[in-house]
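Training component of the fellowship. As part of building independent skills, the fellow (R.M.) carried out the full modelling exercise for a liganded target. The chosen ligand was inosinic acid. The inputs are recorded below so that the supervisory panel can assess the work.
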Amino acid sequence: MNHRTPKTAQPPHSTAIIGLQWGDEGKGKAVDRLAADHDVVVRFNGGANAGHSVVVGGTRFALHLIPSGILHQGKLAVIGNGVVVDTEKLLQELEGLEGRGVKTGGLVLSDRAHIVAPYHKMEDSLREELLRASIAGDSSGGAASGGGDIGTTKRGIGPAYAEKIHRSTAVRAGDLLRPEVLREKVSRACMFKNSQLSGMAERVGGATARDFVPFDPEKISRDLLEHGEKLRARIQDTTYLLHDLLSQGKRILFEGANATLLDVDHGTFPFVTSSSTTVHGIGPGTGVSERCLSSVLGVMKAYTTRVGRGPMPTELFDDIGNRIRERGREYGTTTGRPRRVGWLDLVAVKYAAMVNGITGIVLTMLDVLDGIDELRVCTAYEIDGKRTERFVPDGPELIKAKPVYTAFKGFSADLSGVRTLEDLPAGARRYLEFIENYVGVRLALVGVGPGREQTIECGG
Ligand code: IMP
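Fellow's submitted model of the complex:
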């Protein structure tokens, strides 16, 4: 008889960190803090559209592609197969970190991660321009039909994911080490892109049409092969790598990029990004099952921000909004665009908590709300005269939602040095308790400043 000894399964002890709003919740700082208790930090979605900023020892690091865990010496940082990688940006980011004394030897890139090529970035820009032109004269700015531009980061993210789904023209990191395969793929891709993009440029007209130069497959291949050489030691099968590490009992921290309301399936479509940004992106984006997770932490700001277009029911257009933007330094890490700012939308957060099955909340930027007389929190929407506590993950529907607010007396105190919940002013404690009760999940951490140490541990 052929007896097989079952492999002893490791109990789940990995963690996922996921944004619960429209991005920029402060996930980078949370990842940086939790990395100390994990062996590996893994990115599974998105690309250089993400921007994580982390302050360590007074120095601010802005990372786009590299998992923030890289700032912890001795940790492995993995870019999983679900990420789309602009290798030029990745090399620049590595150089920037090395230049500031950060060792990057622990960075590994999946051989199956798809490559963002120059034609994807141009397509991203041209599509946005044509979509913007298509809604000129529309009073809702195209939002009523879900049309118009998306306000993308123009990093080529959507076109690169579309290429992945098209298949035969898509380049993966492993191809950068196989010159013949790469050249063939890039030639095929350029054949499609040159005819498509020249037509689009023509339609945009003016300087765009005049300056359009067809992409040269030989030049692109040469550049990508050069990037491949520089990245050779890092490119490998990360699925087996992660499973080997899990079977050795190592703990993985999965770092979600972008955020739940930007998820291509569960977000405010079409005003979303092109990847699976929720916890459910981990399986396809790494080849590792969600069953390895013992906790899923959802990161939310004490208020709401959004970059790019699309509905945001609690958006503020007044002095309070400006004040929050300035105090919270609410300008995009990737594009520098001022972020749209609004009151905390708990309908949206509770939905995101549900979709991800979160086990704890990381609340950030509480200190930014100091000094506002009255704080408001959205606890329901009114849509077409009907009240609902359910989120509407659809752009053209959500635009109709009017926020129903619960108001609180604000708090006035410098929170930057507070390290326990008990030391928070009563107004801030009430605010946090309300959030916990509404969402139905306990707080794990509360951020009161950008520094690694400016955090309250809540035990949740
Ligand atoms: P894309 O991901 O560049 O295609 O942009 C699609 C939408 O997602 C735009 O509204 C972007 O502003 C938004 N977006 C993408 N990544 C992030 C992020 O990391 N933070 C905030 N917004 C993002």
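The panel noted the following from the submitted structure. The pocket of inosinic acid is lined by residues 22-24, 49-51, 150-153, 155, 157-158, 258, 262, 273-274, 307-308 (CB under 6 Å). The chain has a mean pLDDT of 93.
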